[in-house]
Prior knowledge:
Blueprint lengths: L6 E7 L5 H4 L4 H7 L2 E7 L11 E4 L6 H22 L15 H17 L2 H17 L2 H13 L3 E4 L8 H9 L4 E4 L17 E4 L2 H10 L8 E3 L17 H7 L7 E6 L9 H17 L4 E6 L10 H6 L4 E3 L5 E2 L7 E2 L2 H12 L4 E3 L4 H6 L5 E4 L13 H4 L15 E3 L5 H10 L1 H15 L7 H17 L5
Parallel strand pairs: 1-2, 1-4, 2-3, 4-5, 5-6, 6-7, 8-9, 8-13, 9-10, 13-14, 14-15
Antiparallel strand pairs: 11-12
Amino acid sequence: MVFMKKKKIFILLPxxxxxxxxxFTSFVAIGKKLGWEVIFWNNTPFDLKKLNYKxxxxxxxxxxxxxxxxxxxxxxxxxxxxxxxxxPVYQDYKFPPSxxxxxxxxxxxxxxxYCRLFNGxxxxxxxxxxxxxxxxxxxxxxxxxxxxxTEKPDYIFCxxxxxxxxxxxxxxxxxxxxxxxxxxxxxxxxxKATLIVEPDTYFVWSENMKRELLDYYPHIDRSQIxxxxxxxxxxxxxxxxxxxxxxFYKENNLDKEKEYLCFSGDDIxxxxxxPQYLQDVAESVESLNKQGYNLGIIFxxxxxxxxxxxxxxxKKYKNLIIPLEPKWKKMGEDWNKILPTEDDQELLINxxxxxxxxxxxxxxxxxxxxxxxxxxxxxxxxxxxQQRENWSTSKIYKFVHFRTMPAKDAxxxxxxxxxxxxxxxxxxxTPERFAEKAKKWFYIINKESAEHASERIWKKINxxxxxxxxxxxx
Length: 474
């Protein structure tokens, strides 16, 4: 009797951002049904054994030189995109480097040297290779090689393309001839030049993202790209997460007579004036309530924002604003050590389900709400007495990913504090007018039948495996 070797896949978690998509969805269960032994190659402090998942800890860290090369590559690519597309917006994706201390100053000089040495299209090709060459000289790469030789997985699936920690494992996989792929994590990532890894296969959200990938990286072949959608929206289609109104309201001390709006905060870099915007919304809701409405605000902060910057507003409007803290765990000081939990998935879905609209500065929450038929209001004005260098809402909405919006009224733009109340009423009285167009936008940036993204990813992985195992292929 001949026994077939069970298919084995490593799901590479170079950091915590992939947990929500691939550990807290049905992704693993689907893979197991297809006959895969699923093992997380885990570089996060999260203990996946608590979820009854198999895991191998990924120990080690990238070389310091690799980080410098990565920084140079990003700056060089953004300069290249600026020239290629004759579009200055790519310069706005650059983060000003820290100039504090001698160490940072030396690093900045070295990054500038790399940029000068590897200028132009040919230079970019060389700098991409140097990322992998640098990692091959480190202990981290060696440990990855040893694990792969011992475990002999049939496929490596990386959960995001932007992590420095992913270079060594994927380079090791390619050097050993192990098929591999990487998921593009977010709808706005490619214009930012955050493609750090070079896998065999790129898993993208949509045909639009596929076009982006080919435009920005013409050396990638079309056959290397799989359009699958993203698993991050799959839980929105599962009724098991939904709680009755009376249960959700009681659990979170909400007033059962009130209709709630959601204000979702951004991180302090994306929206430094969020506390003032929250206050503006609170004042507008207060004025509407004086006119006979009975509205409240649920405040969901950015999960990686543990600052006290909202405290004064929350205290002032404690009878109006109910903060529902995201259920993420802080497992280190760096932002990527603040990790999502399964419980937060349920909290987010019920916050959407039990509120009537969402208000924020340019957040992808527009799509979460659109899937539930709820409108989104984008804040589109600057705080008058704040003079912020290199930041403005007008700058935010010029970013490339907002150009995919099919109609201006896919969202409701709040162009001044004075019109917030009026436009909240628009959202409440004609939600379908905006939500339907937002849903059309969603299916531009993400493949339709969003609930089947995981299945499509596994279908591609299976196809690669079958091709590899075919006698004619070898």
